[in-house]
Q: What sequence folds into this?
């Protein structure tokens, strides 16, 4: 499956927004980069779907611009004024060319979901490869109001339980794309989260 991080050239803070091109060309998160519509158009003239991992500002700031430009249906777990389809834990979504299971993964955000196929993991912010706090296995911050380290730990465990062996591509909301043994990265993230130590020194 052909996947592009269309916010890779952002000069301001944003999530990674992933364009998965295939049978059902899908944008996973919209990001906060002003030029994201043009970046998408560098690869495709149309979108079949936009899927949100969660609705923190860095993931949805440019959502209206994307929806207006491509008239694509919006899939989200949490309520949103422009949501066309509510997604639930256990649903299956075709992302690009891959059938992905929706896994509800709260802790960093109450409406957080991850998308898992036989080959790929779109993990949003629940698990990332590298983010400045940890390399080769990190996890979403949980020090803001409404967040919970305990719920995040449960979510990572659930993700491991439901992620098939052989997943080789991790597309996370921040940091680098990872290609290799994704399960090992997620297991390292879980181990670090379970230590219950502050992720950042100022927490």
A:
């Amino acid at each position: 499956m052909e996947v592009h991080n269309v916010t890779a050239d952002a000069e301001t803070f944003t999530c990674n927004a992933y364009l998965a091109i295939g049978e059902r060309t899908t944008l996973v998160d919209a990001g906060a980069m002003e030029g994201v519509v043009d970046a998408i158009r560098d690869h495709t003239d149309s979108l079949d779907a936009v899927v949100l991992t969660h609705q923190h500002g860095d993931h949805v700031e440019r959502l209206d611009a994307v929806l207006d430009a491509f008239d694509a249906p919006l899939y989200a777990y949490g309520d949103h004024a422009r949501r066309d389809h509510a997604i639930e834990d256990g649903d299956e979504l075709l992302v690009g060319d891959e059938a992905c299971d929706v896994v509800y993964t709260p802790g960093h955000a109450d409406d957080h979901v991850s998308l898992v196929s036989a080959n790929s993991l779109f993990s949003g912010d629940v698990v990332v490869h590298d983010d400045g706090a940890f390399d080769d296995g990190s996890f979403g911050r949980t020090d803001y109001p409404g967040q919970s380290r305990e719920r995040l730990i449960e979510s990572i465990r659930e993700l491991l339980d439901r992620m098939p062996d052989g997943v080789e591509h991790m597309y996370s909301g921040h940091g680098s794309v990872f290609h290799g043994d994704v399960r090992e990265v997620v297991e390292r993230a879980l181990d670090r989260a379970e230590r219950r130590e502050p992720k950042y020194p100022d927490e």
